[in-house]
Amino acid sequence: xxxxxxxxxxxxxxxxxxxxxxKSFSPEIRFSLQMSVEAVKEKLWRKCGTAVxxxxxxLHDDAGSKIADLSDNLRPLGFYSPQxxxxxxxxLARYVYRLHIIDLDPSSVTSGGWLEDTxxxxxxxxxxxxxxxxDSNFRKFKEKMISQNPTHDKK
Length: 155
Prior knowledge:
Pfam family, one: Ubiquitin_2
Shape: elongated
Strand order of the largest sheet: 2-1-5-3-4
CATH topology of the domain at 12-103: Ubiquitin-like (UB roll)
Helix content: 10-25%
InterPro entries: TBCB_Ubl, Ubiquitin-like_dom, Ubiquitin-like_domsf
GO molecular function: alpha-tubulin binding
Radius of gyration: 26 Å
Protein name: Tubulin-folding cofactor B
CATH superfamily of the domain at 12-103: Phosphatidylinositol 3-kinase Catalytic Subunit, Chain A, domain 1
GO biological process, one term: post-chaperonin tubulin folding pathway
Order of helices and strands: EEHEEEHH
């Protein structure tokens, strides 16, 4: 007897996503094959910060070979036939296709390593004299707490 429960075929694909400017960015993201390329870009914008209009998407296979540029924003992702797993052996399944984001904006927040290399960010500094002149600072708070509880072990 046939089952009364019929599940629709999965119309999504799980892809690894890489970025031209962010080397530590490589999440696995699920996309519907029905999504337009523009909708894919909008989803990726929320993940990496690259503006949709500055984004060029490339589809790569498991060997790293470029399959296609996803340049037509109106086409569905499924048009490019991305695959997410080998079906021959579920135990050895691995991702076979990758979306690579190329950020075309030279002044993008992702360019220059600012999102990964914290040594590029100027740190706030204050002189000892200026710190001591503050009405409220951690040292004054700590002294107040110790004076209120003199039995507290000083470390």
